[in-house]
Amino acid sequence: MKMNTLYAAVSGAILLGAATLAPAQQTGNPPAGSSVTNPVKNAKVAMSADYRADKDRIEADAKAAKEKCKSMSGNARDVCMAEAKGNEKVAKAELESKRKGTPHSAYEVEKTKADTAYDIAKEKCEDQKGAEESACKKQAKADHKKALADAKANQKTVASNSTATPAPSTPKADTTKTGK
Question: What span, in angstroms and rounded, lies between the C-alpha atoms of 116 and 83?
Fold first, then answer.
């Protein structure tokens, strides 16, 4: 009798466990930009064939630009590669900003542009020697900090404009008298 109860409890636990796991399984990955993986404002853009085509075009352009750099040598090659990688990052950030349509994604584009410009400037500074190279890198870092500060300031401005709520209206006093 005790064994039957034990078998019933164990089999019930197994069935209950299987029943709870079954809905959690997915038959495939949801498409890019779906509300399941990434809720976005512009879901139609994220699901469109144009989005995928733009992403493929960006990757193809980047590959071609990197291929062009292989024929170069020395620091010119490093500068060319930094420009190719930077342009790809910026283009992808702009595509994501278009897809998401949020103030934060616009900030990410500006941040990516600043980072890319800084990386390229550092590579160009390596053509110089000694004090000139040091001064060039310091200027590049200062420009980078200023660009990041500007991007952050623009983000706060956009965020405050988009989240501004109208002033609450005061309810009018009830001037009618009720009598019994």
Answer: 8
Q: How far apart are CA 24 and CA 27, in angstroms?
A: 10
Domain boundaries, the chain: 41-159
Find where tokens 């400037």 sit: 121
110: which 2 tokens? 């500006």
| Residue whose tokens read 């209950």 | 16
Q: Which whole-number Å values give the CA distances from 151 to 106, 129, 157, in the listed order?
A: 9, 32, 10
Band the pLDDT of 80: cuts 50, 70, 90. very high
Averaged pLDDT for residues 112-134: 93
CA–CA separation, 80 and 93 (whole Å): 20
DSSP per-residue codes, 74-111: HHHHHHHHHHHHHHHHHHHHHHHHHHH--HHHHHHHHH
pLDDT tens-digit series, residues 134-163: 999 999 999 999 999 998 888 777 666 655
In this prediction the pTM is 0.62
Whether residue 95 contacts residue 53, with contact meaning beta carbons closer than 8 Å, is answered with: no
CA distance 144 to 117: 8
Helices 103-125 and 130-162, packing angle to 10 deg = 170
Q: Amino acid letter at 43?
A: A
